[in-house]
Amino acid sequence: MFKTIEWTDEGVRMIDQTRLPAEEVYRTCRDYEEVAEAIRSMVIRGAPAIGVAAAMGVALGIKNSGARTIPTLRADFERIAETLARTRPTAVNLFWAIERMRRVFETSLSCHSTDAQVVQAVRVNLEEEAKRILAEDIAINEGMGRHGAALMPESGTVLTHCNAGALATGGYGTALGVIRAAVSQGKNIQVFADETRPFLQGARLTAWELAKEGIPVTLITDNMAGHFLKQGQIKAVIVGADRIAANGDTANKIGTYSVAVLAHENGVPFYVAAPLSTIDRSLASGEGIPIEERDSNEVTHLGGVRIAPPSVSARHPAFDVTPHRFITAIITERGIARPPYSMSLNALFQ
Ligand code: MRU
């Protein structure tokens, strides 16, 4: 089994997701700027994995910092946090992880007497916290799997969009974690994976990790989903999330909204699986979720080859927001939330 991301003595090591499935190669980021660049260029992607990478980026930046006094260490922390926060705007896990690291930074300042002791304590504590965020993420996904498996059919086809698997998290996955758990309970499930234009996370990543594990997977192009849903060939849809507002509106990979509407139209349950760290209770609805606009070259080019006339411009919103009314249930590590989400999601935090 591969490791999506890990802390090593040399730096933050991650599987290069831009090279899959052709090559399974790993990249070691030796400073926080390399971690930021890896997030921006999607060497590592998926909301929980971005959170882990950001936490490790902060720890690495402080480890490499030459600061000897608290004011210079604080200035370094702010610069590192800001660089990492500017990488991708939609997945709230990025900001959640940076805030968690900030709390550890602040509490570490008060524990020791000399500046040298404080600097050393901050380094150690941030590294420990980043490793803890990774370990917790895997455990959270396994918990989500246990809750969500009951919602999966005994047998039949489940559709997913993008990649919400081990590659998108510290390990195991959110939506794919639920599928993994259902399969390990003996359910006879096969997965239809939307290819997920334009970055092809479904074709390149979901298909790769499921095939590697022996879970039956069939690739379809995004525009085939409606056809199969209408034919009654899909028993359930399950996706991950990048940010969930307090009312349950869910930002996820571009194209998710279309799948949710099509599932609703055809009476097929549509599930979202996400950890509590993906829920942004500061936003009342999905309208406030920032949607990343990526380079239009990712639309006009496929595998480095231009597929549209040179004069044609393109748009590339990387996410869309699915209104909560199309979501049958939201699966978290604390249990399953059902409508009305403003109450059920809130209850999970109590
Ligand atoms: O642009 P990406 O590949 O980072 O987008 C990823 C997704 O949209 C995933 O579905 C989401 O982050 C959930 S991952 C468990």
Q: Which geometry do the CA atoms define?
A: globular
Range of strand content? 15-25%
Overall mean confidence score, pLDDT: 97
Succession of helices and strands: EEEHHHHHEHEHEHEEEHEEHEEEEEH
Bound molecules: 5-S-methyl-1-O-phosphono-5-thio-D-ribulose
Q: What is the number of beta strands?
A: 16
Helical segment count: 11
How does the SSE layout of this entry go?
Layout (H helix, E strand, L loop, with lengths): L4 E3 L4 E4 L10 E4 L2 H9 L6 H18 L5 H16 L6 H18 L5 H34 L6 E6 L14 H10 L3 E7 L6 H13 L3 E4 L4 H6 L5 E4 L3 E3 L4 E4 L2 H10 L4 E4 L5 E2 L16 H4 E2 L2 E2 L12 E4 L6 E4 L2 E3 L3 H8 L2
Helix pairs in contact: 1-2, 2-3, 2-4, 2-5, 3-4, 4-5, 5-6
Bound molecules: 5-S-methyl-1-O-phosphono-5-thio-D-ribulose (MRU).
Keywords:
350 residues, alpha/beta, seven-stranded mixed sheet, four-stranded mixed sheet, 42% helix, binds 5-S-methyl-1-O-phosphono-5-thio-D-ribulose
